[in-house]
């Protein structure tokens, strides 16, 4: 005799059929008795009429496989797993994802052309022209124009980074400091030149003074310094003696 399913499907309405799906065989039918069914225990299920004495265990969504629970297990349906946030499914069984991997990340210099979904990976594209992206932008951004904002450009932009601008006051301070340092150096040079010239002039003056102090003598006079000393002759001495 053919073994009866738990509560033969043909004998029940849709509501009763739902009860059939979540039961298992407790006692098989005999010549004198019908099949006895009992509900599936917790964390088990049956999703179709059956002659099983044990229900199926609920699927566990393993995070190490990139999975999370999309729909919890019931006595009449298995767990439905889906990919974790920023993951996409690469293996499926019926409507349940069995393995997922993380979305690819765009590199600096690339933008996200198409964001990843639960079933597709991220699509990246390269920046072109005077634009940039750090890899997380949905489109490449134009480089900042420092001059238009009243700043000075310190570093040019690349496809992976924006232009870097400097504060105008900083640039002015740098120029002013450079000018001050240059002036100080020039003044120091002039000071040493002036000191050297002055010392040279003093040396020449000292030489002239020593020459003027030389005593010049002849038979009738002596020159001392710039004054001439005249010595009296013998005749003048005789006249002076007679007079006295």
UniProtKB/TrEMBL annotation:
The keyword Transmembrane applies. One of its GO terms (biological process) is defense response to Gram-positive bacterium. One of its GO terms (cellular component) is external side of plasma membrane. CDD domains: TNFRSF (cd00185). Residues 39-81 form the TNFR-Cys domain. Keywords: Disulfide bond, Membrane, Transmembrane, Transmembrane helix. Disulfide bonds join 40-55. InterPro entries: TNFR/NGFR_Cys_rich_reg. The keyword Disulfide bond applies. The chain crosses the membrane at residues 171-194. TNFR-Cys repeats lie at residues 39-81. SUPFAM superfamilies: TNF receptor-like. This is TNFR-Cys domain-containing protein. It comes from Cyprinus carpio carpio.
């Amino acid at each position: 005799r053919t073994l009866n399913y738990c509560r033969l499907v043909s004998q029940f309405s849709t509501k009763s059929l739902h009860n059939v799906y979540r039961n298992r065989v407790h006692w098989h039918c005999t010549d004198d008795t019908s099949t006895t069914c009992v509900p599936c225990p917790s964390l088990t299920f049956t999703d179709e009429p059956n002659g099983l004495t044990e229900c199926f265990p609920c699927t566990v969504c393993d995070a190490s496989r990139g999975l999370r629970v999309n729909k919890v297990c019931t006595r009449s349906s298995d767990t439905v797993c889906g990919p974790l946030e920023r993951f996409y499914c690469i293996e499926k069984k019926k409507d349940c994802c069995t393995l997922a991997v993380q979305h690819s990340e765009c590199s600096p210099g690339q933008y996200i052309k198409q964001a990843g979904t639960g079933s597709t990976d991220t699509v990246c594209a390269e920046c072109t022209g005077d634009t940039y992206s750090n890899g997380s932008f949905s489109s490449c951004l134009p480089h900042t124009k420092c001059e238009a904002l009243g700043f000075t450009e310190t570093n040019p932009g690349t496809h992976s980074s924006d232009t870097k601008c400097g504060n105008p006051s900083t640039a002015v301070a740098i120029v002013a400091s450079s000018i001050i340092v240059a002036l100080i150096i020039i003044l120091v040079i002039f000071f040493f030149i002036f000191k050297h010239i002055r010392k040279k002039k003093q040396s020449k003056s000292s030489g002239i003074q020593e020459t003027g102090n030389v005593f010049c003598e002849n038979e009738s006079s002596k020159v001392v310094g710039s004054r001439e000393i005249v010595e009296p002759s013998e005749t003048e001495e005789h006249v002076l003696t007679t007079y006295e």
